[in-house]
Amino acid sequence: MRGHVGHFITEKGDIQANCDVIAGKLSFTFTFFAQVYLTLLSHNSFSVRSHTCGELRSTHVGEVVTLCGWIQYQRHGMFIILRDFSGLIQVLIPEDESRAKLKEFCDVPVESVVKVMGKVRRRPAGQENMNMPTGEIEVCAETVEVLNVCQKLPFEIKDFVKKTESLRMQYRYLDLRSSQMQYNLRLRSRLVMKMRDYLCNKHGFVDVETPTLFKRTPGGAKEFLVPSRDPGRFYSLPQSPQQFKQLLMVAGIDRYFQIARCYRDESSKPDRQPEFTQVDIEMSFVDQAGIQALIEGLVQHMWPDEKGSVSTPFPSMTYEEAMRDFGVDKPDTRFGMKVNVPFLRDTFRQPGGCVQAICVVNGAVILLLEDGLFDCILSCSVDFQQEVSVVVVKTDGTWKSPLGKMLPESVKQSVHQMTMAQPGDLLILAAGQQDRPLLGKLRLYCAELLEEKGVALRDPTAFHFLWVVDFPLFLPKKEEPGELESAHHPFTAPHPEDADRLFSEPHKVRSQHFDLVLNGCEIGGGSVRIHNASVQKFVLEKVLKEDSSLLSHLLEALASGAPPHGGIALGLDRLLSIIVGASSIRDVIAFPKSFRGHDLMSGAPSFVSKEELRPYHIDVKTLGFSKFQPLLCIPVLSIKAAAAFQMK
Amino acid sequence: MRGHVGHFITEKGDIQANCDVIAGKLSFTFTFFAQVYLTLLSHNSFSVRSHTCGELRSTHVGEVVTLCGWIQYQRHGMFIILRDFSGLIQVLIPEDESRAKLKEFCDVPVESVVKVMGKVRRRPAGQENMNMPTGEIEVCAETVEVLNVCQKLPFEIKDFVKKTESLRMQYRYLDLRSSQMQYNLRLRSRLVMKMRDYLCNKHGFVDVETPTLFKRTPGGAKEFLVPSRDPGRFYSLPQSPQQFKQLLMVAGIDRYFQIARCYRDESSKPDRQPEFTQVDIEMSFVDQAGIQALIEGLVQHMWPDEKGSVSTPFPSMTYEEAMRDFGVDKPDTRFGMKVNVPFLRDTFRQPGGCVQAICVVNGAVILLLEDGLFDCILSCSVDFQQEVSVVVVKTDGTWKSPLGKMLPESVKQSVHQMTMAQPGDLLILAAGQQDRPLLGKLRLYCAELLEEKGVALRDPTAFHFLWVVDFPLFLPKKEEPGELESAHHPFTAPHPEDADRLFSEPHKVRSQHFDLVLNGCEIGGGSVRIHNASVQKFVLEKVLKEDSSLLSHLLEALASGAPPHGGIALGLDRLLSIIVGASSIRDVIAFPKSFRGHDLMSGAPSFVSKEELRPYHIDVKTLGFSKFQPLLCIPVLSIKAAAAFQMK
Q1: pTM
Q2: What would the pLDDT profile of A162-209 be if each residue is shown by its tens digit?
Q3: Residues A222, A208: contact at Cβ < 8 Å?
Q4: What does the alpha-carbon distance between residue B42 and residue B53 come to, in Å, rounded to a whole number?
Q5: In terms of Cα–Cα distance, which of A560, A252, A251 is closest to B54?
Q6: What part of A 576-615 touches B (C-beta under 8 Å)?
Q7: How distant is the Cα of A617 from the closest Cα of chain B, in angstroms?
Q8: What domains can be seen in chain A, in order of their start residue?
């Protein structure tokens, strides 16, 4: 039974606290900052404890300390292992204590909260535990006070005890006691503080809080509604402070940021968080390159030391390149397996289009017998309505595939050349439209499969940042491909090189939108905005065919001396989850909602009485049973009963 | 036409930027901090401008600069006064420019946005403007580019132009261009940053974001509801993160803070903000004195230099003393005029109770003829159901009042002694119950009246912090005085000296709740919380008669090893408004709601189609017209029509 929680907090402050800083002659201004930042960070100020459990070392030997914490476990009926957020310490109930008292503490359940006063002493020779940062010493208790008895627990508070996700959520206050969740939440706080420091103290950004009770935006189907006491009127919880940040630029705030709570009602997505946090930034008198440089500096400044270093500038790729080489607009560049166009489809005497291929190195050796791979290929093939062929490159370099006979040797040669295929590799070929999401998806799936088989494809400690730029400004609507919708949002400015085309060929216009991608996840999206009222009006009315009167306040603002401006929003939850290597953003949120958007701890959302709804002038509709529906429901309930009904 | 916007930004960073810091020999750790905090704060990084308008001085003479800003006004057809957030600068369109170009810029409307490139030069002798921080120099334009033309404005952007509140709200993005609003928002950002620095960097607090979509709390009549896609189920927007902060203590976070958005649906109050911000703090292993000391340090650390200094510890007063001496639980201690008990009511041969008095110095001279005073006295007298008498102390020391004849000379003598009344003063006497809110209210009203008349009663630059402690734990319910309700919230711990009484005489128990009062406004409330599950259950079930199952998750958490803990919440909006001397919290909020909770800029809350309500399974009730109501409505619509109806 060794200390398995360990020393999980190593903040800058701790290092600093142990450094003797001799600052020398300092100017007044410097003294101000020195005072603020160089005094010791204290976790014990204003507290009834004198030290945290985890901070004690052999340098404290002889000191009388007061500790508060949770009983992690007991040893030999004479040691209590005490835990707080900073780590573990061994407390000895000495032999010379009255046996009654000792007995009492042995009966206190684990996870009870106690206060211990005692002297730090070196552990007897041979009893040190070098796996425990406090393992050279122990505290010899003089008084122990039980502050709260732990009555019962649904699971043990030990890192190695695996809990189901729903149990973790239901007892989140216990789940958060784990060293991983403590690390995640504390890292989050630390990184956010560093971002604020960079934006506020280094670059003059102003932290402005914007409202979350706002007006419904046109087409805001994902916005939660909040009924007001004015009959029939609703507030809306916005998906982002987009309008407000632009209005703040019109207001001359010049540089705005906010760690902003955002809301999105996405019932269709399984892993949804109805509320999430974004680092929201907007600047005046800036171009795209300026915003990108700002963010590169921000990431570098906030990056935790323990995760290596980040080099800037980040590589950049156009949307077109990303789609061409990776089949996706957020490429995971930690590995190759690029999509290639080894030959035109004309080869098959079908004019137009082309054939694309990815080469899975050693895929034939490792993946060929994986059912998962073929299931995935099949379902992708159906989803994307494209033909997919799998080719095994045999040891002699020939193809094992029906395609092998259909293609001339010269074409096969060129495929090998382009994909650098070697014996043992697997070639996946697809024929269809130009955009290659199918191969993009298979590429990622193969990577996962290879890793499951133990192939070290992606370095788990690597962080590959990437800008994807030059997105299209508009895309054809899915339901009505003849009409256009904004690829991102209607406030995005057209690419300067395509500005004139906006009025003639809007579908060909590139935008000044850009995404920040980390390890294949989109963690931010930014753009230069339209600052000209008439351009904005044109986009809303003529291109998007929307009712611009719903945004009249924004159009008026643009006409009142709006500066050129642009900005970005980073998804804080996603960014944090990648940094700590969590599989879900739920692991970097203190109290997340479940898959279905429920709070499993409190039971939210919950039923509300008719009485409580009255001030809001709303009624809950009875489950789909309007007055015309009961008859239609009968056959569903019972076909026999319906038949009986008709026979009457 | 002088520069009236002036130099309204003097942040620490600016001072620092002008200091040459020679840091000497620094350790590695120190270098880290030096790197972070001692590099220049730049407002121009990543921007197309080289300088802000307000930062230029004679030291810049000869430099070629690029400025961006708004045209504040023009002079003599050859000068443009350019404005950005940092101040004003004069731009000269030189004589040797082509006249056409000059003409063009003279036609550009004020508040248009321009970019100017040119050389800084000293103004010709005699043309300096020493009222303008940039008044020694001007920029001789080489190129001027119009970035956006201001088309029309509802009001001029000049500080001296008075706007109605509703116009300011409707065009908030223009209102925020004023120097006062720029100062308020920038100060807010700066102070919040300092608070974070104190809590995070100095005292080890962890910034944790808690959900705002939560479960309705018992009796949460002021909570906004958010319909979910689960039929009949609603989220609730919490009034504070109270439950979450306590759960975080159970989770071992140890020290939590959050600048938290909170929601309160108070239709009854006229000056309401449905969303507001509180500085939310919670600590484990702390007592009341510890929390108070933490907050005193916080206020001192964040306090802006330009508002003087704050000395600690803050004075403290019990709830009983506050009610006794000031007739209110949040006394404005910037002036005296205390409530006195000069004689018992028995004097009037009515047993029990007493007579209280305040003495308005020079009140007889200054206020006697004020209708407002007597209206207020009358309405208070009715509201509080108490008798009020007004006594004028005449020049000879005798009383002008009906009471004069009723009271023996000895009693009058004691009144004078106690209240220190002098000729010319006004005595206000009230007889009624022990709690003296009536005189407390009149005291404040008289102070306002005196100040309106030019009496310097309260120093407008003074900031009087005060702790009010030892509040009662429970109060009789207003509707049912035989039952008790929490004076603050049901999680407040009883005062240690009264702990045993909780089970026998709960109405006599004092709490460990304490308020922070600044200049007569409650700006914060804190308490030590109940950490024992059975005590919490007793309070909920036996004292408050509430259904404790609605809080079962909290009770379970307290039973799972909850540490002793306590915390506080400061009202950030109110605190800021007092610091900047604003009459309303709307002046420290970027986009506030109106009196009635509306956003006058966008029109929120707004009507929503039946279609949009469908996913949430709710219907808007037709304005009180249920199927039985139309007949009842007829008389309201037209009595004549109703009469005609009945005559048929």
Answers
A1: 0.89
A2: 889 899 999 999 999 999 999 999 999 999 999 999 999 999 999 999
A3: no
A4: 14
A5: A252
A6: 589-591, 593, 597, 599, 601-608, 612-613, 615
A7: 5
A8: 12-148 (2.40.50.140), 182-315+465-588 (3.30.930.10), 335-452 (3.30.1360.30), 618-648 (no CATH)
